[in-house]
């Protein structure tokens, strides 16, 4: 097995690379923005945020810490390629993103347009950015996507969610300040936190890089660095997500979520994800439900699909998370599958695909839309194929 356990795995001779932004983590680090902008040689930053972040009072401490009077651009909650027409592109020489995943994704495209001009739609796809983008400082206000560490942005184009994936999109600096998340509502904490949980779990158990053909984006399979970070991310998020959801004032839990979600994003930006995300993207394309809800609805079906090739790895994760109970049948790999189900119930998230309104008649479409997920499936530990259909019927829609 490709050790997810405590002893690591065999280190083969195959090369791998790993990339991360410069990171500052801790209470108050967002207030260091002026110093970071000076290091990045940015004189006129464009701040990309959204109205919800501003209304929550989270933008103010950042704006107050920037010398001068920066321009502010408001991202939409579902950014589309049509949202970039009115950018003040001449006046800015760098971007500061303050917000959740959609806002950080918007800022990556803004930084691209500042440097290279053109139209947002031109950059859809993989490896389309011709060179370095404008300096980008990402300041997350949720503990979920980890977008501040990744090289991708999700944009809607002609009504369909598309991606821009390019190593140039990875922010130069990530200022991960837990204090910005202290006031997050429980529902956002649960949903975005569950996303981080699945990032860590799918990254840790992804196909090993040695078994993946080189791809033009950096989702290259799990390697020893990504697994180290994913393991720590999983422990932090699993240990804190319920406390942070049920007691928003638990600052240690907020800090653990902040760190864990960041490490998970850093890890999966190298390793890639798997079938839980592929299923969730398929569901999210068919119904209007948040990403975290789609993940919760997909996790049991996804993990059990991979069980034949990840039984030992899941058992190892169960030990890592102290789930094993020798006195019960809840041990080994099934202890992990059971725990993921318990967790989604505890957090009030969907407990299956039927909770999102799907029934047996939808299986063909869900399977078809899952099997086309070329970003996710090559790094899934099991090659997904037509047998996914029978599996979904059995796990989700039988009786
Ligand atoms: Fe995700």
UniProtKB/TrEMBL annotation:
Q: Which residues form the Alcohol dehydrogenase iron-type/glycerol dehydrogenase GldA domain?
A: 22-178
Among InterPro entries, the record links this protein to:
ADH_Fe/GldA, ADH_Fe_C, ADH_Fe_CS, Alcohol_dehydrogenase_Fe
Record PROSITE patterns: ADH_IRON_1 (PS00913)
- Domain annotation Fe-containing alcohol dehydrogenase-like C-terminal: ranges: 189-385
Domain of life, per UniProt, equals Archaea
Say if the entry is tagged with keyword Protein biosynthesis.
no
Which GO terms label this protein's molecular function in UniProt? alcohol dehydrogenase (NAD+) activity; metal ion binding
Sorted UniProt keywords: NAD, Oxidoreductase
Give the family this protein belongs to, as stated in its UniProt record. Belongs to the iron-containing alcohol dehydrogenase family.
Record-given protein name: Alcohol dehydrogenase, class IV
Q: Which organism is it from?
A: Halorubrum vacuolatum (Natronobacterium vacuolatum)
